[in-house]
Amino acid sequence: VERVFRWGKQVLFQCKTRCAAEEHTQRFLAVHLRMTGRLLIGAHDTSPKHLRARLVLDEGAVLFVDTRRFGTLEVYENLEQASPAGVDPTTADFTIERLTALLKRGRSEQPLKPWLLRQDRLVGLGNIYASEICFIARLDPRRAASGLNADEIRRLHGATCEVLSAAIDACGTTFSDFQDAHGVTGSYQQFLSVYGRNGLPCRSCDRSIDKIIQAQRSTFFCSHCQR
DNA sequence: TAACACCTGTTC
DNA sequence: GAACAGGTGTTA
Questions:
Q1: What protein residues sit with their CB closer than 7 Å to strand C?
Q2: What's the rounded Cα separation, in Å, for the pair A39 and A21?
């Protein structure tokens, strides 16, 4: 293993194979955790419940644990195969201009919040942060993604950067399953503005947070603050 | 874009 | 016992 890094929502292990006869000596092992997957570092012989794969290293092992078995483990020969088509909002590529172009692409009437989950536009956002970003940007999640004006796009861009950076600092959100490689759980839950807070008072205006279903996924928002 | 599928555990 | 869950893929 030469390098381990994130690519969209996948964790990539860049590996050099030992087979000299092979044309490609480079391989990428791509792990997608989906809903309940975890990568843990352990001893060679540890076998936690729901262990799906064990990558044995010279010292210890990387354990792929996944309760619901939605997670995937694939091998790619190059990064393009693993590459999600969207822009990574944690990188310098994510500019207001770039976001504007993505929103206008295909003039999608798709509602904003489901649009934020599209990995072919932006990579890495999930259902929690999509709701949180709409709240921080003060945008109604039902608005058409292509219908935002320049100021609204600027707010959306700022909110995306803000939410992701704060959540990463807090090591993620953690409802029940997430842990990092050392078993540490995230603490961003304490900062959530809307997700899971339906019926509770908006932290900004005190009115009740609503829960709706968009594209078969729950969305939380404040109909007073988000327009 | 809806409906459903893939799984299992937790909560209502 | 049903409903729900942080994700995504297929089918119509």
A1: A 9, 32, 34-35, 68, 70, 117, 119, 126-128, 172-178, 186, 216-218
A2: 31
Q: What is the pLDDT of residues A192-214, one digit of tens each?
A: 999 999 999 999 999 999 999 99
Closest CA to A222 of A139, A153, A162: A139
A107 touches strand B (CB under 7 A): no
Residue carrying the six token digits 């088509």: A85
Kindly give, in sequence order, each residue whose CB lies less than 8 Å from that of residue A38, ignoring residues fewer than 6 positions away.
A64, A65, A66, A177, A178, A179
Q: Encode pLDDT of A70-84 as tens digits.
A: 999 999 988 887 776
Max distance between CA atoms of chain A, in angstroms, equals 66
Q: How far apart are CA A222 and CA A211, in angstroms?
A: 9
